[in-house]
Write the structure tokens for this entry.
Amino acid sequence: MNTSYQLFIDGVWREGSDGKRVPVINPATEEAFAEVSWGTVDDANLAVESSQKALSGQWGTWSPTRRGRFLLSVAAAIRRNTAELSALFSKEHGKPPHQASSEVEDAARYLEYFGGWANKLTGMTIDLGQGQLDYVLREPLGVTVHIAPWNYPLDIFCRSVGPALAAGNTCVVKPSREISVVTLALARLFQEEGIPAGVLNVIPGPGTVLGKVLTEDPRVRGIIFTGSVATGRTVLQSAALNITPVVSMELGGKAPSLVFVKDESELDGPVGGAVGAMAWNAGQSCGQRARWYVRRDLYEPFLERLAPRVRNLKPGPATQPGVDLGPLVSKKHYDNVMNYIRLGIEEGARLIAGGGRPEGVGEKGYFVAPTVFADCHNGMRIVREEIFGPVITVIPVDSIDEAVALANDNSFGLSSEIWTSDLTTAHLVASKLDVGHVTINGSAAFGFEVPFGGVKLSGLGREGGPEAILAYTRLKNVWVKLGHG
Ligand code: NDP
């Protein structure tokens, strides 16, 4: 396997301008398994310059159909390379193989979905009366900058680079400092499939430096950001300098799940959902169902069923068979999540499962036991703040109105979920939840064909679905006086 990764700028693999390289750590072993070149301000400038040049080069001559076919060919290449990409991904991120390969598949699906859109974008004509022709052109934005997080790096890369390229833009991608080499491996597939130089640049490096210079560059005409609220605010301030359009900003969540099934016989679904909220990506998901509001008569039965299933989850390295969840992505994040677990105990929540480092994983690796806190209330920080780990909170409620009020009582508004077999309750609650995304009796449909994004501190814009690709275009109105009168 390759153990040395470089920046991808202007169609060329190269070292950073100051030659700096940093180790890439496997979070399951805490050992370095590769090194990656670290970009500088000069590299960021070169990437933007090459992206701007590429707009009027060969890329500008590609028809929308050709761009679409290209994205489909990269999707096929991703599928052909699933095993290699997933293995690298597991090593860099810690995800168990089934979760790593599922995200590789998601990456391919985003490119297929947006590849299909490339030749379906249209402008329009507007009737202003006799002697006049008015038409509206739909054009690409130009150079777009994509600042990506570490939790779903392949998925998030393709959900923004896919529509950007489909619409004819060029891209500069700044991956997270925690996860960059799997992104570079993905970029290599774009290169092998024949992307013209400069259309896609990927530069790992320090976010505070590269992120700032990229988002403040007046040549950049679109910013796509996923990450924390604090950095999101900084990015918005940078964008304000040149009034750069922010295509989308996805800033996380603290999703509520409302359990209002008929009786105990229907608890399997929600209990399985709660287990999944801790196991999938070790809870490092913006859409994680982190707050569980359970009708009071179902509350203890829910906890009784949940506890043994959570204790049965197997944390461990991706190399071990049968692992349900991997380590957290970094030492910094591990310490952060462990602090929240300590805080939960201090705040007086009842610990139902987990509560620290799991048994049987040894001394190394950023493993956290799936943790359930019961008897919580909305005043607790563990209920209000995004923990972003395998930790959930459970709260009893007396009515659906109370559950909705508590669910909405949070500064985030990304995802939410309701479990009920009563159709009226389901649709009524869906209409009342102050979020961008509701699921009923399960948690699929997070992207591709459907819009995904939040309200309040969860951000702005939508990823996935037709609106997402329109956001990567701008409108130009053209008016013509017909005749010479
Ligand atoms: P950040 O918001 O710090 O990082 C997200 C991206 O922004 C990274 O690529 C980062 O680069 C970059 N960045 C950092 N500073 C700037 C800047 N000044 N201008 C532009 N870009 C910048 O998130 P963290 O990775 O530190 O995670 C912290 C918390 O954020 C998590 O614990 C979680 O709560 C939340 N989060 C939410 C995500 C979501 O899906 N909505 C995803 C990831 C995190 P670099 O990595 O090099 O610093």
User: Anything to note?
Assistant: The first strand starts at residue 4 and ends at 5.
